[in-house]
Amino acid sequence: MDVFLLSFKRFYLFSRIRFMMGKTIRHITLIITALCLFSCGGYNKVLKSTDNDFKYEKAMEYYEKGEYYKAHSILETVGSAFRGTEKGENVVYTIAMSHYKNKDYEIAKSYFASYGRSYPQGKHAEECKFLVGVCLYKVSPEVKLDQTSTSEAIDELLEFTNLYPQSDKVPEALKYLEELQEKLAEKEYLNAKLYFDLGDYMGNNYQSAVVTATNALKHYPETKRKEELFFLILESKYMQAEKSVEKKMEDRYRDTIDEYYNYIGEFPEGKHRKEADKILEKSQRYIKHIEERRTN
Question: What secondary structure letter does DSSP report for 81?
């Protein structure tokens, strides 16, 4: 009997605990739902208002609280009403910053650029010009993809440094420029390497590798891929000589030898020095063979 009563008490106690927990969870859920409805209701009320000054003030409050979606959604409805005024300037800037802080960089870029066109002497003109370039930097894709936005970012950041050479943002702009230019150099290196790997498939891809690598060195002389590009040119010229018809071999081997000295002139202790020395040896051996045939 005692065992039965003890078991019953435990069951009753457990049931009450579950019941109370369930009520507590339901209460919390109702409170959260009510708060959300109240909050959304306030936002919707602002959005539907016909008082532009009221909407402007509430949007700025949302922005200050970090509710960027609500801020730009409201401001986008009053932009035309304040165009050409100080509030209008703040509207465009705040919309741009709201999208930027939400990491909607493509949209933010458009609004920053719009600010620059509409308020070229505005109090945020310098910052907006800088952030156009930053937005493009943020959306710059990985190296293997199309690099149009990378080139656009470089153009914008260079223009910013020319327009505002004394700006405290110039060091940051230069850092971004270095990264972006290195990305384009890497893209060119990969293109040159692809041509080299294709070899003589459907044409002389070695010459395309030489042209692409040479242009990369011309446009990005300080790239981290500098040695790789120099050696790729040397390798490509050597392979052209190896696979040439006989009447072109001598000239191409001599060109390869010249390229060897270009490479070691830049990188006398380069990581490809041993490979380069082998290329030189083979090229000189062929030239010596040709010269001996002529004297006999």
Answer: G
Cα separation values, 238 from 62, 65, 218, Å = 66, 65, 21
C-alpha–C-alpha distance, residues 18 and 13, integer Å = 9
Contact 276, 263 (CB under 8 A): yes
Is residue 138 within 8 A of residue 132, CB to CB? The reply is: no
C-alpha torsion sign, points 154, 101, 139, 228: positive
**Among all chains, which residue has been given the structure tokens 């470089």?**
154
Domain ranges of the chain: 186-296
Inter-residue contact 136 to 156 (CB < 8 Å): yes
Architecture of domain 186-296: Alpha Horseshoe (1.25)
Tens of pLDDT, residues 43-59: 888 888 878 889 999 99
**Which of the 8 DSSP states describes residue 57?**
H
Whether this prediction's pTM lies above 0.90 is answered by no
Question: Do 173 and 206 meet the contact criterion of CB atoms below 8 Å apart?
Answer: no
